Amino acid sequence: MLSEISRADCIGRGLVASSPDIQPAPTVPSEEFVQLFSRTQRRIYLHILGQVGNPNDADEILQETNVVIWSKFDRFELGTNFIAWTFQIANFEVLKFRDRRRSNRLVFSDDIVEAIAEDSEESQDDLDLRRAALGECLGKLRPKDRELIQTRYAPGNKGKDVASLLGRPSNSVYQSIGRIRKTLFECINRRLSAEGVR
Amino acid sequence: MKNVDSRQLEEYSGLFELLELQLEDRISRSEFERLEAMIRHDSTARKLYLQYIDLHGMLHYDTAAPHVTATTEAAEAIPKTQPAPAEICLQTSRPQSAGIMPTVVSCLVLVVLFGYFAFTGDDGDQLGRVDIVEHPAPGPGSIATSDQNSTGRNGRRMGPIQLPERPVRPRENRSDFNGRTIEVVYNAWEGSPVPSKDSVSQAAQRVGSSDADVVAFINEQIQKAWEDNEVSPSPRSEDPEWLRRTYLDLVGHIPTAKQAREFLASEDPRKRADLINALLEDEDYVRNWTTVWTNLLIGRSNPREVDRLALKKFLRESFANNRKWDEVVEEFIAAQGNHKENGATNFLLAHVNDQALPATATVARLFLGQQLQCLQCHNHPFNDWQQHKFWGFHGFFSQMEVVSDRGSTALIDSGSIPEAIFYERRNGLMRAAYPEFNGKKFRPEDVTEDTRLREELATMMTSGESTDVARAFVNRMWQHFFGAAFTPAVDDMGPHAVPSHPELLEGLARAFVRSNYNVKQLIRWMTNSEAYQLSSRFNDTNEIDDPAAGQMPLFSRVYVKSMSVEQTFDSLMIATRAGDALGADWDAVDRERQRVQKQFVMQWETEDNDEANLFNGSVPQALMMMNSPLIQTALDSSKGTYIGRVIRSPGSETDKIEALAMAALSRPPSSGEIAAVREMARSRSFENGMSTRLEDLFWAYLNSSEFILIH
C-alpha cells in the first residue's frame, strides 16, 4: 500500500517540484505542524461543510484542501494562526469546487457563502464544547433512536437508504431522523448554556 | 457566541423544516431559495443554520460512524507514530540523496490520510460511558404550545408581555498558541469589585443576634451599596403591591379579595410584620415551600423509582415543623431505607442514574451552591477547581446501592470499603480519586465497614460557623424574595462568581448558622428588611440597578419576577374561585395542577438531570392554563360561578368592577378602568351590555402582565 504513492504521484498532485534543481529540499514538517494539522481536521471539515451544505462534497473539498496544506507546509510560520491559514486555503478550494459544480446543483449564492464563512470563523470557540456535548447527548438518546441515527450516519448511508433498510416508509424515517437531530440540537444548546457559554 | 433557547427554536421552526430537507437532499429549488432568503440577512438564522449543519457534519464525520474508537491517547500520539511509517517508506523508495523530502512528504500524506480516519477523538469521547437510558427525550410535539394560543378565548387578543432578556456576560478573549481564540466568560457582575476576605469576615462577625439586629445589618449593608453606587432607592411600595408580592412569595398565590380588603383597610403600622408572621403559620406556607423544594430536588416530571408523594410528605413535615435546614440537608444526603417510608431517599433515588454522577452534581449544586458537573471532565475553566474535586466528592456516594423488589425500592449503603475511583484526564491519563471533602480524604485504610461515607460527608458539610450549606440557602432565599441572587447564577457560587454584597451574604449565612438554621427566622429577616418594602418601579436614579441587564444588583427596588407555573395556576384558582366548584377538595385541585403543569415540562437525563421548564410566565401560557376545564367553567358567567355571582349581585356597577379588580389584582380599580368599562357598556345597544363588559374586564385583568408578574 505504501508503495502506491510514488514520487510521480506526488509530482502529479503538485506536492513536490518536478525539477530537483529548483530548490533544495526543505525541512520536514515539524512535529508541531503535524499535530496542528491532525487536530484541526474536523474544524476545517465543518468550516467547509457550512459553505457547501453537503457532507460528501465537503469530504472531497477537504481532501483537496489537505493536499494544498501539505504542499505548502513550509509557508506556514509556527506560532501564527494555523486555523486562519488553513481556512483561507479551504475557502479557496470551496470557491474552486463551486465553480466546477455551479451548473448542476443547488448552491448558495456567493454573498451567502461569504457570510457563512465569516460566521464559521467566529464560531470556532464553541466547537469543541459542542462536540463534547454531542457525545453526551448521543449517550442520552433512547437506544432505538441512537441506533437509527447511527444507521443514518453509517458511511455511505442516506435517509433514503435507512428507510429501505428498515422497511419503513421513507417519510416516517425522515421524520424520525429529523426529530432526533432536533433533540440532539436542543440538548447541545442546553448543555452549552448550562456551562455558561452564551 | 450566543446560543439559542427553545423559544427561538420555535420561532425558527420554518427554518428547521427547510434545513431538514436540505440535510436529506430533498430540497426543491424554490425551497432552497426560501432558505437562502432566510439566512441572507438574518444573522441568527445563519447561526442556527451553521450550528445545525455542524451537528450534521459532526455526526457524519465521526460520532455515529464506526471508527469512533480512537481515544485521546491516539490523538496525542500522532507525532510518535510519524517516524515509523516514514522509515518503511524510505526502504521502499528508490535511494536518492536529494529525494528524501518528497518521499517523506508522501509518507506524511499517508500518515495524514490514516490520521484522518483514525484520529477522530481528541476529547469528549470519555463520556461515551453514559448509557443508562430509561426516559425518552420527549419529541418536539410536546413543546410547541404558545403559538396556537396567541389569541384567547372568543378570539380576544392578549397584550404582549416584555420579559427582560438575559444579558450577555462580560467576556474576554485570549488566544492560545495556535491562534485559536479562547473565550473566557467570567461569571461575575459587571463592575463588581473583588473584596478582601478579611473585610468580609470582619463585617460579617459584627452582626448582632436579635432579629432587629440582623434586619438592621441587612439595611445597613444594602444602604452602603446604594451610597457607593450613587443610587437612591425606589419609594416604599404601595400596600396592594407589597401585599400581593408577599402572598406570592410566602404562600405561593395571590390573596383573596377578602384578605386584600382587610389588609388594605387596616391602619395598624405593624400590619406588614404581622402579615408576614401570619403567613409563616399559614398552611399554604408549607404547601408552597414543599412545591418549591420538590421541584428543585427532583424536578417537575417524575423520575423513575421515585415516590413523589413520599418526598412531598417529608418536605411537608420539615417545613411544617420548621426543621433546622442543616438537619434536612443531612437527611437528604445520608438518607437510607425504603422510599415510601423514608421520603428523603427519593431525592438521591432520582439522581442515581449514570453511576450516580447526577447525584454528586445535584448535591453540590443545590446544597453547596457549587457547579461541579463540568469538573467531571475537565478542570474548571474559570477558577482553580480541579477535576479531582468532582471525583473526590463523588466518592462519598460510592457505597450507595439501590435495591428494588416488586415495586418497592430502597436506598442503602453497602458498607463496602470504597476503592479508588478512576477517571480520565483530558490528556488521556487515568487518575485515581478517594472520597475527599474540604481536604479530608478517606483512603481505604481510614475506612472501616461501619463507616458511612454519606453521613461523614453530611456532617462535614454542616459543621462550622459559616458553611457553604448556609451560604447556598441564604443566596437562594434572597433570590426568591428579591428577584436576584447575590451571584449571577443562584447555584453557581464558586470562586469565580464574585457576590454583589459579599459582607451581607457572609453575615446572613453566619446569622443563619447561629440561629440553628432556622428557616422561618431567615425569611422574617429578609421580608422585614427595608429593601423588601420597596416598590418594583424604577426611579430617576436607579435605572442602572437592573440585574436582568447584567448589572450588579443593588436591591434599590424589588425586581419583577415571573410567576412559576404553580403560582400562576393557584392564583388563577383564587381569582376565579374555581376551587368552589370542587368544594374544598384540594387533592382534586392538586391533580388538576399536576396535569396542567405537565404540558410545560420536559426532562433530560443528564449529569445534572436538568429539565426544561417551558413555562416562561407569559400571558399566552397563562391562557393555556385557563383552557383547563376547571378554570373555563369558573370563568363562565352563566353558571353559579364567582364572576356570575358578581354580575348578578345587587350592588352598583362600581362595586362590581371593584370586586373583580380586588379578586384579580388585589387592588381597587383605577378611575380610568371604571370609566372605560362604563363607556363601552353604554356604546352597546343590547341588553347585556354591562355584564358582557364586566366579563371582558375580568378577562383583561387576568390576561394582564400585572396579573402574571410578581412585582
Task: Give a nutshell description of this structure.
With 198 residues, chain A is an all-alpha fold. Chain A has nine helices and no strands. In chain B, α21 (468-482) packs across α23.
Report on the structure:
Chain A has helices at 7-12, 31-52, 55-71, 82-101, 110-122, 124-139, 143-153, 159-166, 170-194. In chain A, helix 2 crosses helix 4 (82-101), helix 3 crosses helix 4 and helix 7 crosses helix 9. The longest helix of chain A has 25 residues, at 170-194. Chain A has two domains: 1-20 and 29-122, Rna Polymerase Sigma Factor, Chain: A; 124-198, Winged helix-like DNA-binding domain superfamily/Winged helix DNA-binding domain (Arc Repressor Mutant, subunit A). Chain A starts with 6 loop residues before the first helix and ends with a helix. Chain A is globular and about 55 Å long. Chain A has 198 residues and is an all-alpha fold. Chain A has nine helices and no strands. With 711 residues, chain B is mainly alpha-helical. Chain B has four domains: 72-118, no CATH class; 197-284 and 464-557, no CATH class; 292-461, no CATH class; 565-710, no CATH class. Chain B is built from 33 helices and 13 strands. In chain B, strands 3-5-4 form a three-stranded antiparallel beta sheet. A two-stranded antiparallel sheet of chain B has the order 1-2. In chain B, strands 6-7 form a two-stranded antiparallel ribbon. In chain B, strand 4 (400-405) and strand 5 form a beta hairpin. In chain B, helix 25 (565-576) runs antiparallel to helix 30.
